Amino acid sequence: MIVRLLAAADIPAAASLLTALDKSLTPSILSERFAKLADTAGHRVWVFEEQGTVVGVAHAFVRPALEKPCELVVQSIAVDPARRNAGIGRALMTEVEQWARAQGFASVALHTRNAAPFYRKLGYGEIAAPTLMRKVLT
What we know:
alpha+beta, Aminopeptidase, 4 helices, 7 strands
């Protein structure tokens, strides 16, 4: 298993995974979006590769703010439904949190529709239950 940054060759697999979040997403659309995102500072996209197959993807970005310290925000995370509960989401979130620490951020935030129990297991607390969650990094 490998967690690494998304490469152009991963776009079809990543698009397939991300259709769980946007049914209209195609590899062409994701390719266009990734090209714009790749030129934007403060964004990272990781994939979880298992035996040469991408089975997970995560996107996080730096959110500057005036009223609070900057933090990292998880925009999206998707795991192959057949591979859920195998530690893939946890591995991707570990990578996100390591990047946040390396950037000097004290927290990671995210919005979730249905995965609050998963994030609670990782130490995230509800800010505006149950959709907005945050983890203070130590």
